[in-house]
Target: DUF839 domain-containing protein
Amino acid sequence: MDRRTLLRATVAGAGGLALPFTAWPAAYASPAQNATGPYGPLQAADANGIRLPAGFTSQVVARSRQAVPGTSYVWHDAPDGGAVIPNGSGWIYVSNSEVSSSAGGGASRIVFNSAGQVTGASRILSGTNQNCAGGKTPWNTWLSCEEVSLGRVWETYPLGGSAVVRPAMGRFKHEAAAADPVRQVVYLTEDETDGKFYRYIPATWGNLAAGTLQVFRAGSATSGSFTWADVPDPDGSPTQTRYQVSGAKSFNGGEGCHYADNKVWFTTKGDNRVWQVNLATSTYELAYDDNLVTSGTAPLTGVDNVTGTASGDLYVAEDGGNMEICLITPSSATVSVFLRISGQSASEITGPAFTPAGNRLYFSSQRGTSGASSGGITYCVTGPFR
Model:
């Protein structure tokens, strides 16, 4: 019996079986289960090869190594993590480039007016390495994270200003960041098989130049309570940050991260999970695990970038899988497929982000139809998001 079959049997029989194990709390929690999506079934692929629910449409915004339409700026290779920054009555979409510094690593922006028309595009960060994901701050900067050993966080200024490195946020294989304005901290994921989950406490909220890096401490189970502990040497040399604190909980390949309503969610690609951390109660649990989907085929595999909406829905992009963006509703513990990209199986979906009005979703296919970093495509989907 494989792990998925065993866990499904465990969940199904939990009501009448007293398990002798102490490491099975997830079997009694409520990780998301298959459900019909709130927007109905996917329609046939459109002209862009995207299958969407009825009422939604897609458009291509930019292609790697081609000028962004309406501008002379050539869009970067391998578009990855992204965010939408408010800009007057319009907005800016920022996107990382997950390539080396010699190949043009860094980040770029596309400027839109209130009607969603492109009015400009430009580079906001250059000379950095493997900028994977990151996160938006409440003061409308973009934290671009380097996914390399001893990688750094760069604070970029899409509304104007020069990028600044933030070494106090730790040097490790950074992935994503999520700002928590209530506790005035930034959460950080680490893309290692034994990676850790961190938070950074700035000395002054709104200024990331100095502060304290802490690591998440908990047991080995998939749910329970947790505490935070200071990382003695955020520089990560000679001892890497993830090995500095006894009792720090390991997570298998930290990826996307999103904060809302006193909770922070993050994904781990090594075990295909979405974790939910309740900051008000100092507890954590699984929001999704493909091995704990008890009926039908698990819809979400290759978990990666994640974003959320005002309604509380989480949108999780797949790295591989079926090239889908899936929708998780934590309040009802349901998961469904929102869209699927056809004909791009050698790519991954990256950088999902909503406009302030919530009616447009931007994202990229990092390698597009070619399967190469030079083939990236950035899209926008418009429709009646709830």
The mean pLDDT is 93. The radius of gyration is 20 Å. The first strand starts at residue 33 and ends at 34.
